[in-house]
């Protein structure tokens, strides 16, 4: 291979590279910010895309976050690539906190009597009758969905207005630097 390491890393260093970037979290965050800020489009479209991706991360539909993010971004005229980047808010480190928050909000909205305990994993229910499967997992997913909708709306608003302000300033500063460079 052309770009392969001469000495392969041990498996534990590869795993550590997935958990903690070699350049550090600050540098990885800066890289992600520059990737978002340099996307083509207006500050509204980029901010709406990121906000859409972040908002759908607060729903319990784990396999559908990209598609749901694209749909919401399309509805609000947001950038689709920015919505894909925004779904990174929901990741294995944040999902326990997200589900705890949305479950609590759903429990408050529905009343505590509706919130059920998480059932034990049952392959027979999963592979067998769909009615049994739904009756086992609907009491768990429904409060997450009911609590996820208001939380997603708040998250969308927070991300949209914060990113729109940051992107407007970033684009203005970048334009000023270009004009100052041309005038020299």
UniProtKB/TrEMBL annotation:
InterPro entries: DUF2062 (IPR018639). Signal peptide: none annotated. The keyword Transmembrane applies. Residues 27-174 form the DUF2062 domain. It comes from the Bacteria. Keywords: Membrane, Transmembrane, Transmembrane helix. The chain crosses the membrane at residues 52-76, 97-116, 136-161. Pfam families: DUF2062. This is DUF2062 domain-containing protein.
């Amino acid at each position: 291979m052309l770009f392969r390491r001469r000495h392969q890393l041990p498996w534990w260093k590869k795993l550590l590279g997935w958990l903690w970037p070699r350049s550090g979290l600050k540098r990885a965050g800066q890289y992600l910010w520059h990737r978002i800020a340099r996307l083509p489009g207006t500050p509204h479209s980029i901010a709406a895309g990121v906000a859409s991706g972040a908002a759908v991360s607060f729903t319990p539909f784990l396999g559908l976050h990209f598609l749901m993010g694209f749909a919401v971004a399309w509805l609000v005229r947001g950038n689709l690539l920015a919505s894909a980047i925004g779904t990174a808010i929901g990741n294995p480190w944040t999902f326990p906190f997200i589900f705890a928050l949305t479950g609590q909000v759903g429990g408050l909205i529905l009343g505590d009597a509706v919130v059920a305990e998480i059932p034990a994993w049952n392959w027979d229910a999963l592979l067998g009758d769909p009615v049994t499967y739904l009756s086992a997992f609907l009491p768990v997913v429904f409060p997450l969905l009911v609590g996820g909708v208001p939380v997603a709306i708040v998250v969308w608003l927070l991300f949209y207005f914060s990113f729109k302000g940051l992107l407007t300033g970033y684009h203005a500063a970048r334009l000023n630097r270009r004009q100052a460079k041309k005038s020299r």
